[in-house]
Amino acid sequence: MARRSGKRPYAKPHRRLDMTRLASMPRSEERGERSFRVQHVSSGRKPYTCPGCLSEIPQGTAHVVVWATDQFVSAERMVEGRRHWHASCWHRGLRPA
């Protein structure tokens, strides 16, 4: 029987799962008095306009989808209020123009 190489990663401990890096898992973020849900999208089906820089997010480009989760907003309004942002524009804290 062949002997296993010592270079294989089986002896190393598992890396911790970083939940912020999962593309399909929305997470909560606070911005001032408001709370938002932020979801990373690996590629878009159509082009979108980023509300932060007013530039186009081309089809197939990774970006984030953001919607407000304030306590006085209904579920229908949350869906209508979703916006597609460049990830860098959202993380820099650009305000919608």
From TrEMBL:
Comp. bias intervals (Basic residues): 1-15
Q: Which organism is it from?
A: Nanchangia anserum
Which portions of the chain have biased composition (kind: Basic and acidic residues)?
27-36
What ranges does the record give for the region Disordered, renumbered to this chain? 1-45
Domain of life (superkingdom): Bacteria
Name of the protein described by the UniProt record: ATP/GTP-binding protein
